[in-house]
Known about the structure:
Elements: H1 2-14, H2 20-41, H3 46-75, H4 91-95, H5 100-107, H6 114-127, H7 131-138, H8 148-154, H9 166-175, H10 192-225, H11 228-241, E1 247-250, E2 267-270, E3 278-280, E4 284-290, E5 295-301, E6 310-314, H12 316-322, E7 326-335, E8 341-348, E9 354-362, E10 367-374, E11 385-390, E12 400-408
Antiparallel strand pairs: 1-9, 2-12, 3-6, 4-5, 5-12, 6-11, 7-10, 7-12, 8-9, 8-11
Helix pairs in contact: 1-2, 2-3, 3-5, 3-6, 6-8
Protein name: Biotin transporter BioY
Transmembrane segments: 202-224
Keywords: Membrane, Transmembrane, Transmembrane helix
Amino acid sequence: MSGLETAIRNALDRAERGDGQVRARIYQSARQALDAGLRKQGVTDNLVIMQQRKRLEDKISEIENEEIDRLAQSAQPVPAPDVDPFVEIDAPVRQTTSHVVPDVSVSVDAPRAPAPHVAEAVALGGVTRSGATADRHSEMPSMAPDIAPAGYGSEQVPGTPPEASPVDEVAAATGTKGRKGRKAKPSAEIPAGRRGRKKRGFLSHLITWIITLGIVAAGCFIFYQSGMVQSMIEDAVRSANRPSALQSSGQGPSVLSSRGGFSEEWVSIFQPQQGTAFTAGSQARAEIATATEAQALKITSATPDASGDVAIEVPVEILRELAGKSSTLALTIQSAANQHSQISVRCDFGSLGSCSRHRFTATQEKLDALFKVSFDRTMAPNAPGRIIVNTGIQGADRPVFIYSVRALPGQ
């Protein structure tokens, strides 16, 4: 600070130090030099900056008090018995430099207290604190050079107390309340760089969440479009409607549900009472027998190959209804032994086509085994078709009762 003090005093020696505006410009130049030096040195700590400014303002106040005392002492020997202290000084006299000392003596003959001197010096520093305030002082022609300290002391910065020091001004500026009444935190507690990093962190988190949600949504859409959701729903409904004792295996959809009975839309293919034609292979036996509930076709296959098959005839009229549609076939079965029996079912409808092989498990309870068949051909065959059943999958002694065979033509 000694360098700035020396520079201020040298500037006052070379300038018109009796002019208050000249002194104010010198003080303002010192403040600007301090700020430039701090920026050049890379000082960014607000506390250090305020301390340096406070020391400069104290030094400016000290120099200004010395200048005021010097002007007062130089004005005391000059007698002014006929001069009215309240008479306004003419403009020509105010512009001349040879009458500066007498003019000062006229304006300061009134008693002065030390406290106003300090207030005037502080106010001088506060008035020239910013560039806008300094410009405002430079544009005030009514201020007399000989009473510059008093003029600076009488003017106050809007929103700043008269006795406030530059440090108090900085504290007041940083501690003012916001628009919503919340007190703003000092800038020293939260650096500007840190506040910027917080904003970038929030944006990065937001972008991350958006990308994650987009990936999840795309995955769900692809999963739904793949048909797996519909398949899972159909399997769940099918499992809920299927009797617990009925099991199936094989290709294609092998087990459906009759939903507690058959409506009039179902077409009868085989009924034991109707004497529908059926044919047994060389290693199979088929006969109409009396089961636990009604008459049924009892099938016993010794081998699982073609020689153990039993073919049930499907009339041509029914094949015409199945042509070019996706239909459902249903077999009402029951195990004729005291154990479970597995059977295989396939169809051969001549020129209309055939269906894949399905496997069902018959239990001691009467169950409905359903499976779907689809035929793209619309030309119905001229000969009856066949539904082929084999019970020799697990051995020769696994007979099965077939109560009926039905078909539900599709749309």
